[in-house]
Design goal:
Elements lengths: L6 E2 L2 E9 L3 E7 L7 E6 L7 H16 L8 E6 L5 E6 L3 E2 H7 L6 H20 L2 E2 L8 E3 L9 E3 L6 E2 L4 H4 L21 H6 L5 H17 L9 H10 L13 H10 L10 H11 L1
Antiparallel strand pairs: 1-2, 2-3, 3-4, 4-6, 5-6, 7-9, 8-11, 9-10
Length: 284
């Protein structure tokens, strides 16, 4: 743990923001800068696992190459004296998961479309560089304001991102990690059917599906599939048609149709992210 007052790259640690299974995140400030930053540090216990260290450094490498208004900005990266790699990122006050928890009702369709359009724009920028996010979920969508009607999006956490072979030499500063074909990569509620079967083979279509789940959740007030057990949830994603009728009358027919297409079971039948982005922009 970094104690308050410790300095990293000229930033002074103020407090702990989050402690996860893999990383600790701190708020820090520079002496002459008004805005705080987030310092993301790999847990010391994982520093002996070369694959995990490589994945962390690759995430920093990708973020350093993506300059996009809706992707979280990397400010610096390095290694602490104790051996843990770190990233310094722009600090956002909240994220979409917290905002949805605080919302007692569904998100108005115009607000949902605006937020989804920004996310689609960020994902499209990744896809054009040969990168699949593979873990799109509300907690990985940072917001620059607590009010959803005013907030702008920053897509974050590329720790599970997949870089296509032809783009690896450009995007990765450290190296490629070969993930076992049987490993589940993603967050269950938002995983595309193909991620349940073979995560390693999932392509950009999986991000389209996950965005469809997230958009559905904003419009309906709940994800399309809800289950207690992983096997039951997997069966719903694999075989059950999305309950589009839950979207209600507030969702325009064209938007309902787009969400339904994004949630198609077969990857090739989903719209490309370019089309998703263009349609969402046209709905605004």
């Amino acid at each position: 743990m970094l104690a308050p007052g410790v300095r990293v790259e000229g930033y002074e640690v103020v407090s702990v923001l989050a402690i996860g299974a893999m990383c600790q995140v701190y708020e820090a400030r520079a002496e002459h800068e008004a805005r705080p930053v987030a310092v993301k540090v790999l847990h010391e216990m994982w520093c002996a696992d070369q694959d995990i260290v490589t994945r962390f450094r690759n995430e920093a490498s990708v973020l350093g190459r993506i300059q996009h208004p809706h992707v979280v900005r990397l400010l610096a990266t390095g290694t602490l004296r104790a051996g843990s790699p770190y990233m310094i990122l722009e600090r956002l006050p909240t994220h979409l998961a917290r905002a949805l928890d605080d919302t007692e009702d569904i998100v108005p369709s115009q607000t949902a479309v605006r937020l989804a359009s920004q996310i689609a724009s960020a994902l499209l920028a990744l896809h054009r560089r040969g990168i699949v996010h593979r873990d799109l979920k509300p907690a990985n969508v940072l917001l620059d304001a607590h009010d959803l009607a005013e907030a702008e999006v920053r897509l974050a956490d590329l720790g599970l991102a997949k870089v296509r072979p032809e783009a690896r030499s450009e995007q990765l500063a450290v190296g490629h990690i070969s993930t076992g074909g049987g490993a589940l990569l993603g967050t269950w509620d938002y995983m595309a059917p193909e991620q349940w079967i073979k995560s390693k083979a999932a392509g950009v279509e999986a991000d389209v599906y996950s965005l469809g789940v997230l958009l559905f959740q904003m419009l309906a007030g709940r994800p399309p599939y809800v289950a207690e057990e992983p096997k039951e949830l997997m069966a719903l994603h694999l075989f059950e048609s999305p309950p589009i009728d839950l979207l209600g009358a507030q969702t325009p027919p064209a938007l309902r149709d787009l969400v339904g297409r994004m949630l198609n079971k077969v990857p090739a039948t989903r719209p490309a992210m370019q089309e998703v982005s263009e349609l969402l922009e046209s709905f605004r």
